[in-house]
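#lab-general

N.A. 3:47 PM
ok so I finally got the sequence cleaned up, no stray characters, all 78 residues accounted for. can someone with queue access submit it? mine expired

B.Y. 3:52 PM
send it over

N.A. 3:53 PM
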Amino acid sequence: MQLNAREAMHVLELRSGPQGHPAYRRIVQEMHRLIAEQAGHRAIADAMRFVDHSETSLGRLEAEQRFQSTREWSAPSL
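B.Y. 4:20 PM
back already:
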């Protein structure tokens, strides 16, 4: 796979989010680490400020729960 810096930034930031599939998250987190360490492009990796390396167990479910609680809070009462 070949990506320029702009493409890598887009893919890594998008697919590393907590809502991302765990397999995608692991792959792009490792890609981010390799860009910085093995390829030696630390400045480019540092520019990818929104790559998420946090651990999450619920993934998309957490986002759905937040959405549901917001929806219940903002729903008009009848």
